[in-house]
Amino acid sequence: MARVLQVGTLKPALAERLRTSYDAPVLPADPAARADFLAEHGPGVEVVVTSGRYGVDRDLMGRLPALAAIVGFGVGYDTTDVAAARERGIAISNTPDVLTDCVADTAVGLAIDTMRQLSAADRFVRRGAWPARGDVPLARRVSGSRVGILGLGRIGQAVAVRLEAFGCPISYHSRRPVAGSPYVYAASAVELAASVDLLVVATAGGAGSTHLVDRAVLEALGPDGFLVNVARGSVVDEDALVDLLVSGRLAGAGLDVFAREPHVPEALLGLDNVVLLPHLASGTVETREAMLELTLANLERWLDHGELVTPVPA
Ligand code: 8YV
Residue 148 sits in a domain of what CATH number? Predict the structure, then answer.
């Protein structure tokens, strides 16, 4: 009986290793096929390997009586019911650190692209508008602009370090001030947004941060303010965001994540002050390979020693 179960579509090289080294079956995507599958495989499963896109909910945990660990590919684990896992004493691992640089690089790329309107200018050239229309409208300066980071964890700090090198004064808001941080702490997300030109969302997803960036925060950022989100779509009130962007009450947004991925609000598709990415922030060959290795290291350590290399904090 298989000890390891794959939940969701994973990077092909990872799925291959799970199949060849661990004989891991894949949970059927079709709910109708799951009952029979789980009756056959469920009782033996000790470890689920999944990614941030799928996770393990309370219902699935209930069908896996021997489940002891959920090994995740990705730093975010908001799709797994953490409370249900804690109740059962099920351990969870993620892949922190190895993706920090690439996610921070993407945040900076989105900030530059959005504020300088590079993607919009590229479209302008491609459609042959340059000879006919002349110069594109002037954009906004990135260097020296006031930057607010929402969530000063590993990724938030890596974004801050990068933008400090651009001469940007950095402030941040987290649940509590980060000891030893050289950056200015804002007591709330609204206060932070009101004091910056660019707000970068880098906080963890999940129930604790849902709509942390609500209409009030976006209004505080204002018609000259820019938003970059490399965290989770759930952190931002997407309806309010679309409303303010369409009506010109927010200057622009660079988004790698959305509330209902892979669906992007239709109203954003025609806007030139918005840069839209398909959740690719960690998507480099090097980083995804490192994530794969760390995922397998967690799995192996659990199966051999009953502990994880990178357990998520309690
Ligand atoms: C991955 C991510 O694309 O690490 C995360 O939390 O969102 C991304 O790095 C994703 O987890 C893979 O499905």
Answer: 3.40.50.720
Structure tokens belonging to residue 76: 């975010």
Q: Is the pTM of this model over 0.90?
A: yes
What number of residues does the chain have? 314
What is the number of structural domains in the chain? 2
Question: What's the CA-to-centroid distance between 197 and ligand 1, angstroms?
Answer: 27
36-70 pLDDT, tens per residue? 999 999 999 999 999 999 999 999 999 999 999 99
Q: Using one digit for the tens of pLDDT, what is the confidence trace for 160-205?
A: 999 999 999 999 999 999 999 999 999 999 999 999 999 999 999 9
Residue 88 resides in a domain: yes
How many A from CA of 103 to the centre of ligand 1?
10
Same domain, 125 and 218: yes
The answer to the question of residue 260 being in a domain is: yes
**What number does the ligand 1 atom closest to the CA of 52 have?**
11
Q: With left for phi above 0 and alpha for psi between -120 and 50, is residue 275 left, alpha or beta?
A: beta
In single-letter form, the type of residue at position 203 comes to T
- Separation between Cα atoms, residue 220 and residue 47, nearest integer Å: 45
Full domain range(s) for residue 246: 100-276
Ligand 1 pocket residue status of 75, Cβ below 6 Å: yes
Verify whether residue 58 is a known catalytic residue.
no
ipTM of the complex: 0.96
Residue of the CA atom closest to atom 5 of ligand 1? 74
- The verdict on the CB of residue 76 being under 6 Å from ligand 1 is yes
